[in-house]
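tool_log.txt
---
The assistant was asked to compare two proteins side by side. It first ran the structure predictor on the initial sequence, then on the second. Raw inputs and outputs are pasted verbatim so the downstream comparison step can read them without reformatting.
(1)
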Amino acid sequence: MTLVGPELKKGDKAPSFQLLGNDLSAVTLENFKGKTKLISVVPSLDTPVCDLQTKRFNEEASRLPGNVAVLTVSADLPFAQARWCGAAHADKIKCLSDHRETSFGKAYGVLIRELRLLSRSIFVIGPDDRLKYVEYVKEITEHPKYDQALESLREKARA
């Protein structure tokens, strides 16, 4: 599969993006200014690994300080994300859709050209909007390194 966009690295400035919230409102990186952000990227919430990944980060989000935002980004339609979040009781994270413009996928190097889906990945962004942790999961059916991502997130949230 072909990924569109650059491969980002720890220390890079987090690229801007425009995503859709479940109410179709525009959401950008600026909406989370000054917060530490964990962005969990999944191909589709309606697949087993994506389901488990998103539920895991929702559970972890309940134990994180208020200066942390946990986001799940996929190319699913906002309505499908809202349905999934309701059914899964995922109320500690914010699900955002890259369906309309795929600006996130292109900016973060996770857009799968052949499928128009996003590749599984994790990004931790500090309050300074610099990448503190980056993981591009090589095999789409594998889980990310949850513990490493969460440790990086907790370090930045304490700083």
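(2)
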Amino acid sequence: MADWSVKIAVVNGKTVFQPQLQSGGTNVLFMSPGDSCSWNNTTSQQVQPWPADANFQPLPDNEVVRGTSSYLSDPIAPDHSSRPSWIAPGSPVPNTVNYIAKGHSDVQGVLSVANPPPPSS
């Protein structure tokens, strides 16, 4: 199981999610079931990663329950890391979780969870 990090940064005056360097897109974090993800807020504003639907509209508060895979993180103060870490669920796989900065649906990210490829022989 791997531990991944997404940096919350300001780039050209806009807040963005920057996952650890991976192929596939600037805002996509590729994970395996059981991997953990945390966010590092390097901005001067509080940010809360929040799950969104396929159109990056935030899920309603009553559908996001702390302690379940629907909950990504508590609000993150400037210059702090997220609590708790988000653990990629094992089912269903593949699974794509779109997310936004709560209150700012223009700040978008994607968590892509899939089974890892089999080891090469």
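---
observation on (2): The chain has one domain: 3-113. The domain at 3-113 is CATH 2.60.40.420 (Immunoglobulin-like).
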